[in-house]
Specification:
The protein has 2 domains: 117 residues, Rieske [2Fe-2S] iron-sulphur domain (Rieske Iron-sulfur Protein, 3-layer Sandwich); 213 residues, Naphthalene 1,2-dioxygenase Alpha Subunit, Chain A, domain 1. The protein contains 7 helices and 19 strands. The strands form 4 sheets. An 8-stranded antiparallel β-sheet has the order 12-18-17-16-15-14-13-19, sandwiched between helices. The protein is globular.
């Protein structure tokens, strides 16, 4: 920039960051609350979506059930109760609430009040994870938006998920921005981006990236490939390939957030890895644990930014940035009533930010 150009810009009005007022509303879709083993016969509290829920596994059907946590009788917290059959018992007066949310027993009453019904939340158990469906309109799950089956989780050739929950002081949309934010990979993740592309269609938004990484890869030949896919507003899985300790590795990452309220969300971060057939069970477990630690280290670089940045609804973008406004338009469909969704929020699009070697080309060289 020349001195003259700088002088001209100095006379312009400063750019004003805009942060719009927001009603309390949580995006429509499936949210991960934890791994399969995170819910058992002991009621578990879930502080999500600006309220409190109770999750438990039925003694008879073995399935996960999620209900509103507070008993409408006198406000008892069902999270402190116990499971009986497929119902959860309030610890205050022993009212029993079935998996469908209907009160099925009051030990001292001759008649159960007709209004004794609490909300039962749709639940899905798949890919070693437990999902809950959130919809501000109260509609049932959209069948086409059910998360895809991850065949690798059901294979003995892969480890189970290693999981960690990470609280973030921000909006969930800020996390989703990363799908298009090519420019942050260098300063935040020490990555050299060789190619970067996004596609969107319907409820899916995908990021394809090839690059190097100072923490997760080794040397000039240690390129990683990454395909990150959002299925809905909160469930994102990433498949990565590269080298670790001289060995080819293939991993799946889980980065699925669930809002606590309008100002905070929890990221359920997970790693599962393709086992080395030449390694022992203990060696494979150590390998996935080491990779989990490396990823957590890398991921916390994002966390430090999210916890301190402001919300900005009118980002000042340059020609080298990725399609931030595109991913925000895609995300907005989940904050829009179903009947009001516009074609531009869901239509098929592709955007190439950095043209270079494709994920397919690099994986073929890596032997995947």
């Amino acid at each position: 920039m020349t001195a003259a150009e700088k002088a001209i810009r100095a006379k312009r009005d400063p750019y004003v960051i805009r942060a719009d007022e927001r009603e309390e509303r949580y995006a429509r879709g499936w949210y991960v609350i934890g791994a399969t083993n995170s819910v058992n016969l002991k009621p578990r509290a879930l502080n999500v979506f600006g309220t409190k829920l109770v999750a438990y596994r039925g003694k008879e059907d073995g399935e996960v059930h999620i209900l509103d946590a507070y008993c409408p009788h006198m406000g008892g917290d069902l999270c402190g109760g116990e499971v009986k059959g497929n119902s959860v018992i309030c610890p205050f007066h022993l009212w029993s609430w079935g998996a469908d949310g209907v009160c099925d027993d009051i030990p001292y009453a001759n008649k159960i009040p007709d209004k004794a019904v609490i909300k039962s939340w749709p639940v899905l158990e798949k890919n070693g994870l437990i999902f809950v469906w959130q919809d501000p309109e109260g509609n049932p799950p959209i069948s086409e938006q059910e998360p895809q089956r991850m065949d690798d989780w059901y294979s003995e050739e892969w480890t189970d998920w290693e999981m960690e929950a990470i609280p973030i002081q921000s909006l969930g949309r800020e996390l989703v921005d990363n799908m298009a934010d090519m420019a942050h990979f260098g300063p935040i993740h020490y990555s050299s981006v060789k190619s970067f592309k996004n596609t969107m269609e319907g409820h899916q938004f995908v990021q394809y990236m090839v690059g190097g990484h100072e923490i997760l890869t080794e040397g000039d030949e240690g390129l990683i490939t990454s395909v990150a896919r959002y299925e809905g507003p909160a469930y994102m899985t990433t498949t990565m390939t590269g080298l670790m300790d001289g060995h080819p590795m293939k991993v799946h990452l889980l980065v699925s957030h669930v809002p606590t309220d309008m100002n905070q969300f929890i990221i359920n971060f997970g790693v599962m890895m393709q086992k080395d057939p030449k390694a022992s069970k203990a060696q494979n477990a150590a390998m996935v644990q080491e990779y989990m630690e490396r990823n957590i280290e890398s991921f916390h670089q994002d966390v430090a930014v999210w916890n301190n940045k402001c919300i900005i609804d009118n980002p000042l973008l340059c020609d080298g940035d990725g399609p931030i406004n595109l991913v925000r338009k895609w995300y907005s469909q989940f904050m829009t009533n179903v009947d009001d969704i516009q074609p531009g929020q869901v239509k098929s699009r592709e955007h190439v930010t950095v043209d270079g070697p494709s994920v397919e080309e690099v994986r073929a060289k890596q032997g995947f």
